[in-house]
Design brief:
This protein is mostly helical. The protein has 24 helices and 4 strands.
């Protein structure tokens, strides 16, 4: 059976499964729509949280970044997993104890202010919309290659599938759909990794294969270092970025993880406070399966890429040299526009090297090379293309396509639910129409979800970068705005509404300005965008890492303002103490 037909069957079967689950578990009340009726088992919630968490950035893009950044990309592994430790210890049980539907609702009640709630809604929407762009990009990439449809059509199909099961089922439908999506994505990620590790190192366990040796006895990482340095690139295992930037990016990803509303709301779905902590532990276990495999996938993908595209002379006929054609997988991905080469010296070969390295560029010129001919390699294709590069069976390639879509759609659904809940529950019911009936609130939630899907699809068709890069920016926004407000709301009973509002606005605005200034999404009239290079960054801090600085500014601004304004009312201070130090374990568990 040909690849396209097989892919349609596999992807179609998974979509049918998701839609079937949505019909079975459709929400009939606002409680089911927002928090699945708080009846999800902690292990099931851990699996759903893992799927909610492991987005297109984790499945599709992270290993692509590892493939090209090497050591420096380890920050994504440390930051995105370390954040769950913070979430389990510092936030999840306390927020579950409070017992509200949404993060803005907690902030509004804790800081006794509709203004604080509105600012939290704005922060949530900005971070979530930025995050969902990466998911839509991943959907378009997967559809564009494997179902051979234009990128934009792929995004539209993804929007349609999410619309069906998210609008119908709300959190209840999304939870059980995400459990199925986790099974699909983890199987799709590990199976090809096992095949490739076995082919390269003889070891079927990718994690061990990464540290193992190849058939010629050379360690895989040593071989990769040798291959890339021979072509003028920096060693794969060498640190290339500054220590400060690596530290701040790791911190930004960690506290951004702990501040993402669509992840936090998952801990409102379990029956008891203790279950929130247990859920976080299980989520980390399920996530670790993919995250410990990703370094092996990235390294092996880079090695396979370098080995297969350096095509060369294979013979002669009638006095003319014959050159090996580009690999079939290369031609397939060229049609998507995500991979491209230019034969600059007309020799029929692909010269892929670092022409920015002056020493190697001079050496390359002596070979008759006229510059790097791999003019475009979208990082987001590496995981999806890896099975084709390694010449694995078609069913494995089709499985990877289904897994990539599962990862993107599961996270997109969680994000869109967080956005729609903020609009319907926090803005409409909480501020505009407090007396709205449950039926009308549920309708407003579904309409808000539909609108959020439309906005997400449009932005997904015009993404500002690779999926993991865009997602990293979303984490920075959550880190700088929401995480400090939650931490101060739980652990500082003296923090008042004025401090919280000023802190959130300070963190969000400074981070947005820094991102916009270097990413070039917009700039003020009469000014020029600063070049997005390490030389121009403030103290060498990248836009993706600035969220940690924004968080610090948030804490400082909030503390200063709270010191010079009135303290919170006594009942609010007692509320904070009750959340943090419950009176009686039984009461806390049964809450």
């Amino acid at each position: 059976m040909d690849l396209q037909t097989l892919t349609y069957i596999v992807v179609g079967a998974t979509f049918a499964l998701y839609i079937g689950i949505a019909f079975w578990s459709r929400a009939s009340s606002t409680g089911e729509f927002y928090v699945a009726g708080t009846g999800v088992h902690p292990i099931a919630n851990g699996m759903a949280t893992a799927a909610d968490w492991m987005s297109a950035a984790s499945f599709i893009s992270m290993a692509g970044l590892i493939a090209f950044l090497g050591y420096d990309a380890s920050v994504y592994l440390m930051g995105w997993t370390g954040g769950y430790v913070l979430l389990a210890l510092l936030l999840a049980p306390y927020l579950r104890k409070f017992g509200k539907f949404t993060v803005p609702e907690f902030i509004g009640d804790r800081f006794y202010s509709k203004g604080a709630r509105l600012v939290a809604v704005i922060c949530l929407i900005v971070a979530s919309i930025t995050y969902v762009i990466g998911q839509m990009k991943g959907v378009g990439v997967a559809f564009g290659r494997f179902l051979e449809v234009p990128f934009e059509i792929g995004v539209l199909v993804g929007m349609g599938i999410v619309f069906i099961y998210a609008v119908m089922g709300g959190m209840k439908g999304i939870t059980y759909t995400q459990i199925a999506q986790y099974c699909v994505l983890i199987f799709a990620y590990t199976v090809p990794a096992i095949f490739i590790a076995l082919n390269l190192t003889g070891n079927p366990i990718p994690q061990l294969g990464l540290g193992g040796s190849m058939a010629d006895g050379v360690a895989l990482l040593d071989k990769l270092d040798m291959v890339v340095t021979d072509l003028g690139f920096a060693a794969y295992t060498a640190q290339k970025g500054t220590t400060l930037n690596i530290f701040l990016l790791t911190l930004s990803l960690m506290i951004g993880t702990a501040g993402l509303p669509h992840v936090i709301v998952r801990f409102f779905t379990v029956p008891k406070v203790a279950d929130a902590r247990i859920s976080a532990g299980w989520a980390l276990v399920f996530i670790a399966i993919l995250y410990t495999t990703a370094p092996a996938v990235g390294a092996m993908a880079r090695l396979n890429l370098m080995d297969t595209i350096q095509t060369g002379e294979v013979g002669a006929a009638d006095g003319n040299l014959i050159y090996e054609e580009r690999p079939e997988w290369f031609k397939n991905w060229e049609t998507t526009g995500l991979l491209a080469f230019e034969d600059k010296n007309g020799d029929g070969r692909i010269q892929y090297y670092n022409d920015k390295n002056e020493e190697f560029a001079a050496k390359a010129a002596s070979f008759g090379w006229k510059g790097n001919e791999m003019v475009k390699v979208d990082r987001d294709i590496m995981v999806l293309a890896n099975p084709e590069i390694a010449k694995l069976p078609n069913w494995v390639i089709a499985l990877v396509a289904a897994g990539g879509l599962a990862a993107a759609l599961s996270t997109a659904a969680g994000l869109l639910l967080a956005i729609s809940s903020a609009i319907s529950h926090d803005v409409i019911k909480g501020m505009i129409a407090p007396g709205i009936s449950e039926k009308k609130e549920l309708l407003a939630s579904r309409l808000a979800m539909a609108g959020a899907i439309a906005v997400a699809g449009y932005l997904g068709m015009n993404p500002p970068g690779f999926a993991a890069q865009v997602v990293a920016l979303a984490f920075g926004l959550a880190a700088s705005s929401i995480f400090p407000a939650l931490m101060m709301g739980i652990f500082n009973k003296k923090m008042n509404r004025e401090g919280a509002i000023v802190g959130m606005l300070t963190g969000l605005s400074t981070t947005l300005i820094y991102i916009f200034w270097f990413k070039g999404w917009f700039f003020f009239p009469g000014t020029e965008m600063a070049a997005n290079t390490p030389d121009n960054w403030f103290m060498g801090i990248s836009p993706e890492a600035f969220g940690a600085v924004g968080a610090l500014l948030n804490f400082i601004a909030a503390t200063i303002v709270s010191k010079i304004t009135a303290a919170p009312p006594e009942h609010i201070q007692h509320l904070v103490e009750d959340i943090r130090v419950p009176k009686g374990a039984a009461a806390a568990v049964d809450h």
